[in-house]
Amino acid sequence: MSELTKLTIADARDKLRAGEVTSTELTQACLDEIEKADALGAFVHKTPEVALQQAAAADARIQGGAENPMCGIPLGIKDLFCTQGVPSQAASAILEGFKPEYESTVTTQLWQAGAIMLGKLNMDEFAMGSSNETSTYGNAVNPWRRDGSDAALTPGGSSGGSASAVAADLCLAATGTDTGGSIRQPAAFTGITGLKPTYGRVSRWGIIAFASSLDQAGPMTKSVRDAAIMLGAMAGHDPKDSTSADIPVPDFEAALTGDIRGKKIGIPKEYRMEGMPAEIEELWADGADMLRDAGAEIVDITLPHTKYALPTYYVIAPAEASSNLARYDGVRFGHRAGLAQGDGITEMYEKTRAEGFGAEVQRRVMVGTYVLSAGFYDAYYNRARKVRALIKRDFERVFDQGVDAILTPATPSAAFGLGEMADADPVQMYLNDVFTVTVNLAGLPGISVPAGLDAQGLPLGLQLIGRPWEEGDLLNIGQALETAAGFVAKPARWW
Amino acid sequence: MSIDTETARRVAKLARIKVEDEALPALAGEFNAILGFIEQLNEVDVEGVDPMTSVTPMRLKRRVDEVTDGGYQDKVLANAPDAREGFFAVPKVVE
């Protein structure tokens, strides 16, 4: 039975349509795997009843000739998505017990397409983290281990549960969200594919907000083709999100022609970071060779403001977070602290937020409060928004020169051990996002594709960055890289 | 710019997060590490650059100003830690 859970969306779709398998069988196989995988800490709220009900409905639709490729496909959903009547707490204690009365637009579209919800997936609290270690549920664990070691590794973050669940074949695919790299970094750490679409491609409505000008949801899948299929179901204009783009959603799967001849791929010199492991450099060079062999033209490019991306991000993201997270005040939903005699409403706010938010969230909310406070707004926040404009201009200049996509490493290292960064200062952890964060600041689509293993047997990913709204082209180039890299390794089962 | 314990206390107050006195020096240290990192932005020449307001150039859509939703007080209050008689209940705000 468990072989079923290893299927890609594309293969499962074909088998469902051919009547070789039912969605109920597929869903039950996933539920069985999930039951055996608590050690991964991936699924934090399981919804087997919902799943089997949806599967029965999907089977009926498939028998009736349903056309949607997502029909009958079992998925995991990041805990950041509001799902009606099912706990949705952004892995935070402050939303303990919160059951939304509404459904996010992305999940609504997925259920309308016939997809199945297996449950909610672990993540960093409010998506703030790069290792899934800030979750109120405890750590999600990477199914991969270093050769000859049983040390628990991070699946990355913030979509760590999504990455772990897909890599361990607990589900066929999962939703993720990406504010500074939270889809692409965990995808790279677990040997799966992760796509962050162009800002505005996917509705943010009903997704618990972290930094609204950077947040974007996307698919985390076992193949580039699956990412194309699933993005098609997630994307589209939503009147409830004023920043969602009112432009047609193309058939992304149809864009996968396999032909990338004549495509211009840029290699940005600024991404060659000092102290970057030789393995990452080699992987990057190999990736360029693979694309060249497939007929692409490789060109050196410059993105001069790259080094300022992380400091810009660590002004803008906390600033937006401090505003977005002001709503967690113990009044309308979630946790409220017990009060002492004589405590007023201010004490209630302060105690509720101190008890409900973890250390990293508190830190970022306070940094955001500081950079927005009177006297510092111009020096920090406005300056960061100006540098952000320059970072975006760097990309525009390169695309104007005819570059179709940009190839970079996805992460500066392979997955690290859980707890290994415990004594590092916060900035050390932030460096995980050094290659991914520019993409959010410029609003561009980016994809992480598994491309090889390091000397310790851990997966490494390469990132491709595309032109705005050209996810189809980006996916096509990504698939060429996937085909050439031929990454088929799977983690040895220990859970 | 270096943040001292007093500034850390003020920021915590502005953010409405209770921080115990003994935790303030460590918090100030973390702020300084992060703000030290952010200081790099001062190297960038931003003369004549407009601050970004929208990452994808688009005009916000307009719609008719009319009620399109509502009428379910029970759902709005369903997740409240304390709701009474159709209202959110909070500790006394005015004396």
Automatic annotation (TrEMBL), chain A:
InterPro entries referenced in this protein's UniProt entry, alphabetically: Amidase, Amidase_CS, Amidase_dom, AS_sf, GatA
Reactions accelerated catalytically: L-glutamyl-tRNA(Gln) + L-glutamine + ATP + H2O = L-glutaminyl-tRNA(Gln) + L-glutamate + ADP + phosphate + H(+)
Pfam families in the cross-refs: Amidase (PF01425)
GO molecular function, one term: transferase activity
Keywords: ATP-binding, Ligase, Nucleotide-binding, Protein biosynthesis, Transferase
SUPFAM superfamilies: Amidase signature (AS) enzymes
Any GO BP: translation
One term under GO cellular component: glutamyl-tRNA(Gln) amidotransferase complex
Top EC group: ligase
Function: Allows the formation of correctly charged Gln-tRNA(Gln) through the transamidation of misacylated Glu-tRNA(Gln) in organisms which lack glutaminyl-tRNA synthetase. The reaction takes place in the presence of glutamine and ATP through an activated gamma-phospho-Glu-tRNA(Gln).
Subunit comment: Heterotrimer of A, B and C subunits.
Name listed for the protein in its UniProt record: Glutamyl-tRNA(Gln) amidotransferase subunit A
Organism this protein belongs to: Aliiruegeria haliotis
UniProtKB/TrEMBL annotation, chain B:
UniProt key word rRNA processing: no
EC number(s) recorded for this UniProt protein: 6.3.5.-
Domain of life: Bacteria
Keywords in alphabetical order: ATP-binding, Ligase, Nucleotide-binding, Protein biosynthesis, Transferase
Catalytic activity: L-glutamyl-tRNA(Gln) + L-glutamine + ATP + H2O = L-glutaminyl-tRNA(Gln) + L-glutamate + ADP + phosphate + H(+); L-aspartyl-tRNA(Asn) + L-glutamine + ATP + H2O = L-asparaginyl-tRNA(Asn) + L-glutamate + ADP + phosphate + 2 H(+)
GO biological process annotation, one example: glutaminyl-tRNAGln biosynthesis via transamidation
A single GO molecular function term of this UniProt record: ATP binding
Presence of the UniProt keyword Transferase in the record: yes
Function: Allows the formation of correctly charged Asn-tRNA(Asn) or Gln-tRNA(Gln) through the transamidation of misacylated Asp-tRNA(Asn) or Glu-tRNA(Gln) in organisms which lack either or both of asparaginyl-tRNA or glutaminyl-tRNA synthetases. The reaction takes place in the presence of glutamine and ATP through an activated phospho-Asp-tRNA(Asn) or phospho-Glu-tRNA(Gln).
Subunit-level organization: Heterotrimer of A, B and C subunits.
Family to which this protein belongs: Belongs to the GatC family.
The protein's name in its UniProt record: Aspartyl/glutamyl-tRNA(Asn/Gln) amidotransferase subunit C
Gene for this chain: gatC
